[in-house]
Amino acid sequence: MKALNYKLVCVFIFLVALSVFLVLFQDLTKNCIKSILQWKHLNITLWLSLICCFVVHYVSIKSDNSYDGGIIYKHFGKFADTAFAIVTYGLASTTSAAILKGVYIQQFFNEKVYFNHFDQIDIYSMLVVSLFLLGYSLYAALSALRNAVFLSKAETAIPVTG
Fold it and tell me: What's the pTM?
């Protein structure tokens, strides 16, 4: 007999429960999402959250000599890498939230037309791309925060000179 992966069983049960909730409370769910997208403090909240995550990450890597960042870091340093991350993820998250708001209200509430002269495929493509950009921006910020806050159990590599 095979052993159960309890973590995945719990994920499955959670997803089934979430699905049942969404089916039973469709209008409530749609209105909650609409309220979040129309919240007047959404953009500033996204910006401040991203700034906090990446500043904490910067503080954690500032004196770390083993840090090997991306292309911005290699050419301009840790501060520029952090500033670039804040700006790009901040713009991506707020722009995608604005597009999501327009697409969501237009497609699910028919209250206002935000995107004239677009086919349905174009509008749903914007929905998918915007969801991805918003999700990826939040994921990148939370990953940076997680990497800064949780201490690694790995030892620092010491180069062998010979």
Answer: 0.80
